[in-house]
Write a structure and sequence with these properties.
The structure holds two protein chains of two kinds.
Chain A (H helix, E strand, L loop, with lengths): L1 H5 L4 H11 L4 E7 L2 E6 H17 L7 E5 L4 H12 L3 E5 L5 H8 L4 E6 L2 H12 L6 E4 L13 E3 H14 L3 H8 L5 E6 L9 E5 H13 L8 E3 L7 H13 L3 E4 L6 H8 L3 E3 L2 H16 L3 H22 L6 H21 L7 E5 L5 H9 L4 E5 L9 E2 L12 E2 L4 E4 L4 E5 L11 H7 E2 L2 E11 L2 E7 L4 E2 L5 E2 L1 H8 L5 E7 L6 E7 L1 H10 L7 H5 L2 H16 L7 E6 L19 H7 L1 H8 L4 E9 L5 E9 L1 E2 L1
Parallel strand pairs in A: 1-11, 3-4, 3-5, 5-6, 6-7, 10-11, 12-13, 13-14, 25-26
Antiparallel strand pairs in A: 1-2, 8-9, 14-15, 15-16, 17-18, 18-20, 19-20, 20-21, 22-23, 24-25, 26-29, 27-28
Chain B lengths: L12 H4 L6 H20 L2 H27 L7 H17 L4 H23 L4 H21 L1 H4 L6 E2 L4 E2 L2 E2 L3 H22 L3 H11 L1 H6 L4 H28 L1 E2 L6 H14 L4 H29 L5 H22 L4 H14 L8
Antiparallel strand pairs in B: 1-4, 2-3
Helix pairs in contact in B: 3-8, 3-11, 3-12, 3-13, 4-5, 4-6, 4-11, 5-11, 8-11, 9-11, 12-13, 13-14, 13-15
Classes of the chains: A alpha/beta, B mainly alpha.
């Protein structure tokens, strides 16, 4: 325990430690009006101390809170650290949160100050005040557009630092006093649950929580000490705090802050970070952007691109199955990197990425293999705010796409009898603030109930979906339909899918083909068709969809393979009530509507005659009678 | 493909405005410079003195003309005459005992003064009228040089330039003279490259696009045209003096005739208006191609044993060479520099078709 005794036990001790050991190294780089400004560890320490003294002057005392509102920037990070330093609650919020949501977050906290980045956020803070909430002093960073505001108790960041510096000049021993009083169980940060169900809950994380997970992340090679990373994910998300503050400080990395949300792409290219984390959606969007750009290229370029991408993806697929990549494949991969992948990665600032991450939801195999083929060893991680961001990460060599990796050091993982993922670790929070009921529900005997359904496969965690959505087959095998459907939808040919099988022996699926993609495919492959319904019933289209289902089944446990499916004659439509306006499946409605088809699928009939009600855009209804082929796998 | 930009960032505005934003281009330029410095050891003496050295000198001169034609947009048909002024001024100064380093600068100033005086008059007209006025300047200066025996030493006389020495060091070897030419060429190139990001350069470009529009936004177009002529004349004068001191060693009036003016203009136009790398390529094409084409024809006649008259044989390469220039300009009207630029854009966007701004 000697090591941990001497190791910094709070974020501020960590800042102090870095500022003493490597004072001249760059802690933050921030792009301001087109050029990068450096902030060394010594300057950061000074900034946090001055900010703390300034906040002290505004009445900051242990137990009071500071709301931090805005796009990532160095001053907001410093304010967050300063609040934790003063043993207060630093509450970073999502910059796009509306005032309604903010009012919930602020709730009855004893706010000493609101630190805002610019006019947009200042307006929200003022609105909170108009609602009668206690906001304390509003401190703004960028004064653009704020000159004519005649708001009381509102001041600039510069004034905060000036006052702080004056206070420090008078009482130079303040920082030491504060540091001496600061312990590892004091609050480091107060984040909020997403609040999709009910009021957002305040998750209190102590210095011990975040630092233990941070150290475990570095041991698990989440990022390399001394690397460069870009802080572009919202500060309200615990992941950003864990990476841009805790991990970066522990690893003495340089955190680069982009000029604005609009310039992130450009700024990432300028930084060329070695660590890059993005949601599966972002990685998929980037892939689409690359594909679209290639569509506009000349035939020669297209051919070169296809040549290398096809072969490299194929090679990755073989490697993924544990087969050899082959010498020829390796050479093509090497050449492809020089000719195609290198230039593409360069355009998006990914050329130096050694640690590429994704998490939050499942990622499509095509996307995953594409980036692997490009030389980006994309890995997945899993975690929650309640356990200080991360619990499991994939190892560098792992290529299992449907897992989220092994627990990091200090994390104990267990699957409850009902299939819920339980976690016990030093990173797990002490409880929701002022919500003993919710705390009791989430924390039982020191185990955090994550609310995610999952299983453990060869020591690696597989997340199956939200626990509340979980159902089980007649054989007792539990599954989350949404998770399977989402993975079906990784196929570009499948627009929507509905998986049924609760209380049944097998799983069956209703599939809506993607008219655009399948239509294009039909054109190229000489399949003639007249309408969506006609196209959906073509045997060749069934073959196409069958391949996608087989791909899915390959990674499904035995009882949870999809046995039969049918392609529907129409797409799910919000007007017909099959999906919501945000394209979420309304399972019960679909089940009622397609009852005969689902029954026929379970009964293993070869085809079914069905009649369905259709609501036209005029509001009139009609019905269509269709014969649907049912395909068994 | 080679042009990689990720990881290139700047910590000051000076850095942000650096000449080469793409590391590959900077490295390529440095490699070329290194190759130029090592050239005396790499290539044969004959090639060095008969091809590379004149190429560098004429490129410096053509860059000066490009300043007026390409940047400021003013047609200039009397450029060789301005070079001649510098050549004679430098030679006379050196012959009268002035050290070469000062003589060369004097040559530049002499050209600048005469060029500016002429342009004050010439710039009162525009376009084709200006072209004709500059042509008149060519004739006036030619006539003056030939008929003022103080200058030329007589109509058919040629003046020997004293041996080159700089800062007290005798420069007589091939390599030494080559380095003088190289140094001047590099100096002019750096000046021209910096022009693009200087107020002067931007003002010149504004004048080129539309002189009265430039006037409206506060760019005094007459003054900037004058500055362009003066700067270009200075470069012409020094280039003329360097040409004599390091290459011709003898100065005669016909070295700077109307034909030479046209030739330098051709270098600029074939290379590309306002393009530096284009000027290098254009000069190479105009200087080296005639020799190559002639050699080709001679080789062909010998190989196929063609019986072509001496007269025809002398003219055929010229015709072919003319066709080559026309072909070049038909293929890419914006010059060889544009071809390079297209290739660069292609490689920057590779493998995409274009870049999103």
């Amino acid at each position: 325990m000697n090591l941990s005794d001497s190791a910094p036990h709070t974020l501020m001790h960590l800042v102090r430690d870095n500022a003493r050991t490597v004072p001249g190294d760059i802690a933050f780089r921030e792009k301001v009006r087109g050029i990068w400004r450096n902030l060394t560890w010594a300057e950061l320490e000074r900034m946090v101390e001055t900010c703390a003294a300034g906040l002290h002057g505004l009445g900051m005392r242990p137990g009071r809170a500071v709301l931090i509102l805005g796009d990532n920037n160095v001053r907001l990070y410093a304010a967050l650290l300063a609040t934790g330093y003063m043993r207060g609650y630093a509450m970073p919020a999502f910059p796009d949160a509306g005032s309604e949501e903010l009012a919930h977050i602020v709730g009855d906290h004893d706010l000493c100050a609101v630190i805002v980045s610019d006019q947009e956020q200042a307006d929200k803070a003022i609105e909170l005040r108009r609602r009668g909430l206690q906001t304390g002093v509003i401190v703004y960073d960028d004064d653009r557009g704020l000159k004519d505001y005649a708001e009381d108790r509102m001041q600039s960041w510069d004034k905060l630092l000036r006052d702080g510096a004056a206070a420090l000049a008078e009482q130079p021993d303040l920082p030491e006093q504060w540091l001496a009083a600061l312990g590892e169980d004091d609050p480091a940060v107060l984040v909020h649950s997403s609040g999709t169900t009910g009021k957002p809950k305040s998750i209190l994380l102590s210095h011990r929580n975040v630092l233990s997970v941070g150290r475990a992340c570095i041991e698990a090679d989440v990022l390399e000490p001394g690397c460069e990373l870009v802080a572009y994910l919202p500060m309200g998300w615990i992941g950003d705090i864990q990476l841009s503050i805790v991990n970066a400080f522990l690893g003495r990395c340089t955190v680069n802050v982009p000029e604005s949300q609009e310039t992130v792409m450009h700024d990432v290219r300028e930084v060329a970070p070695s660590f890059y984390l993005a949601t599966p959606r972002s990685w998929e969007n980037l892939l689409t952007a690359i594909q679209v750009a290639m569509e506009d290229a000349t035939p020669l370029k297209k051919r070169v691109y296809r040549f290398f991408v096809d072969r490299s993806v194929e090679r990755e697929r073989r490697l993924n199955r544990g087969q050899s990549g082959g010498l020829g494949g390796g050479m093509i991969r090497w050449l492809g990197d020089r000719l195609v992948f290198g230039p593409i990665k360069d355009k998006y600032g990914l050329s130096r990425v050694t640690h590429a991450w994704t998490g939050g939801e499942a990622i499509g195999e095509e996307t995953f293999l594409f980036y692997r083929a490009m030389g980006l060893r994309l890995r997945q991680l899993y975690g929650q705010s309640e356990l200080s961001a991360f619990a499991t990460v994939q190892a560098a060599g792992a290529t299992k796409i449907h897992t989220v990796g092994r627990p990091i050091n200090g994390v104990e993982l267990r699957i409850s009898d009902s299939g819920e993922v339980l976690v016990r670790s030093p990173g797990v929070f002490a409880g929701y603030l002022n919500r003993p009921d919710a705390t009791a529900e989430a924390l039982r005997d020191g185990w955090l109930h994550t609310g995610d359904a999952g299983r453990i496969e060869d020591g690696e965690l597989v997340i199956e979906g939200r626990f509340s959505e979980m159902v089980s087959t007649a054989g007792g095998q539990r599954y989350v339909p949404t998770a399977i459907e989402n993975r079906l939808k990784f196929s570009p040919y499948i627009k929507d899918a509905a998986v049924f099988g609760a209380g049944r022996d097998e799983l069956v699926a209703l599939v809506c083909i993607d008219f655009g993609a399948v239509g294009h495919w039909a054109q190229i492959n000489g399949v003639s068709y007249t309408s969506y319904a006609d196209l959906a019933q073509k045997p060749k289209v069934y073959d196409l969809i069958e391949r996608a289902v087989r791909d899915l089944n390959a990674s499904q446990p035995d009882g949870l393979k999809i046995r039969r499916f049918a392609c529907l004659y129409k797409q799910f439509d919000p007007d017909d009530g099959e999906i919501t306006r945000t394209r979420k499946l309304r399972r019960t409605a679909v089940q009622e509507m397609y009852e005969p088809v689902i029954e026929a699928l379970h009964d293993a009939q070869p085809e079914v005659l069905t009649q369905a009600r259709v609501t036209y855009e005029t509001g009139a209804t009609g019905s269509i009678e269709r014969r649907l082929e049912l395909r068994e796998i | 493909m080679f042009y990689r930009l990720s990881g290139v960032r700047h910590f000051s505005y000076t850095g942000d405005r650096s000449l080469y934003r793409i590391p590959f281009e900077r490295n390529a330029a440095l490699a070329l410079l290194a190759a130029a410095i090592l050239a005396p050891w790499i290539i044969g003496e004959l090639t060095l003195t008969s091809l590379v050295q004149p190429w560098l000198i004429w490129t410096s001169a053509a860059l000066g003309l490009n300043l007026v034609v390409g940047w400021a947009g003013q047609l200039h048909l009397g450029y060789a005459a301005v070079m001649g002024v510098g050549a004679y001024a430098g030679t006379h100064a050196a012959r009268s005992g002035v050290p070469w380093e000062i003589a060369i600068v004097l040559a530049g100033f002499a050209s600048m003064v005469i060029g500016s005086v002429f342009s004050i008059a010439a710039l009162r007209v525009k376009g084709l009228y200006l072209a004709l006025t500059t042509l008149a300047m060519q004739f006036v200066i030619d006539w003056s040089i030939v008929h003022l025996s103080v200058v030329s030493g007589g109509a058919l006389a040629s003046l020997r330039a004293p041996d080159m020495s700089l800062l007290g060091f005798e420069i007589n070897g091939t390599a030494g003279l080559y380095y003088v030419a190289l140094a001047w060429c590099v100096l002019v190139t750096i000046f021209m490259m910096n022009l693009r990001r200087s107020a002067l350069g931007r003002a010149l470009m504004a004048v080129r696009e539309k002189d009265y529009a430039a006037e409206i936004i506060g760019v005094r177009s007459f003054v900037f045209k004058l500055v362009a002529f003066a700067a270009s004349s200075f470069i012409a004068g020094v280039s003329g003096a360097v040409l004599i001191a390091t290459y011709y060693h003898i100065v005669t009036p016909d070295q700077f005739s109307t034909q030479v003016s046209i030739q330098v203009l051709a270098m600029v136009i074939v290379g590309g208006l306002g393009s530096i790398i284009g000027t290098y390529l254009g000069t190479a094409l105009i200087l080296i191609m005639p020799g190559l084409v002639a050699a080709l024809f001679h080789g062909a006649t010998e190989l196929f044993d063609l019986r072509i008259g001496v007269e025809t044989l002398a003219h055929l390469p010229n015709a072919a060479y003319g066709a080559l220039i026309m072909g070049c300009l038909l293929w890419e009207p914006l010059g060889l520099g544009r071809l390079y630029h297209n290739m660069r854009s292609y490689l920057i966007a590779w493998p995409f078709g274009y870049l999103k701004k």
